[in-house]
């Protein structure tokens, strides 16, 4: 019987940049045979009237169809790829809130040996993409997960011809301080690489 490698992509997005990157990560993972890719978002914490005031309510309609992640379903995955916008150089509160509900899984060691990977988005070019991803890794390591990033065999990491996100820690995009910049083709390609790379490594681990 064929063992389908199960990959969950779990993200939070306020204006859609991370959602767009999540779709690219999924597209990359889907190119690997015998994989089942599921995309989820973590629940919102910001009140609806505030979301409306800051122009996020409309943007979030674009991915309202994506189901919400449930903590209990994390152990079903062979790999989990997390996407979060940067908040003050760290993951967003919505993602932290979700992860802070995984204490029971930690107590059971339910995520030990699963692959974990992270991608992000910032407003500004040096606004903390690397700190967000690396500090996210700490939580994954507490869970005993195996961290996978983006190796330099993805040569788009070396692209100096344009402003671009992407690092050995994970894919990333720069939204602009007003959110008007969208993931470039270089950034989306790195995101697709990350999805494919995670899927290939997970498949090898799953034997
Ligand atoms: C409270 C708050 C804190 C933020 N902190 C940072 C930051 O430290 N560095 C940065 O470059 N952008 C920061 N941003 C901008 C977000 O990272 C940006 O809006 C996000 O990456 C866009 O992704 P999304 O459309 O998926 O939400 C912050 C935004 C908010 C609302």
Question: What do you see in this structure?
Answer:
The protein is α/β, with parallel strands linked by helices and 207 residues long. It has helices spanning 17-30, 48-53, 56-61, 93-99, 103-108, 129-142, 185-206, and strands spanning 5-11, 35-41, 79-85, 115-122, 146-147, 172-174. Strands 1, 2, 3, 4, 5 and 6 form a 6-stranded parallel sheet that branches. Helix 1 (17-30) crosses helix 7 (185-206). The mean pLDDT is 97. Flavin mononucleotide binds next to helix 1 and strand 4. Residues 13-18, 85-89, 121-124, 127-128, 175, 179 line the site of flavin mononucleotide.
Q: What does this entry show, briefly?
A:
This protein is an alpha/beta fold.
List the helices and strands and how they pair.
Layout (H helix, E strand, L loop, with lengths): L4 E7 L5 H14 L4 E7 L6 H6 L2 H6 L17 E7 L7 H7 L3 H6 L6 E8 L6 H14 L3 E2 L24 E3 L10 H22 L1
Parallel strand pairs: 1-2, 1-3, 3-4, 4-5, 4-6
Helix pairs in contact: 1-7
The protein binds flavin mononucleotide.
Q: What molecules are bound to this protein? A: flavin mononucleotide
Which percent band covers the strand fraction?
A: 15-25%
Number of E-state strands: 6
Mean model confidence by pLDDT: 97
Helicity, as a percent range: 25-40%
Tally of alpha and pi helices: 7
Shape estimate = globular
Structural class: alpha/beta
Order of helices and strands: EHEHHEHHEHEEH
Radius of gyration, in Å, reads 16 Å
What would you call the quaternary organization? single chain
Low-confidence stretches: none
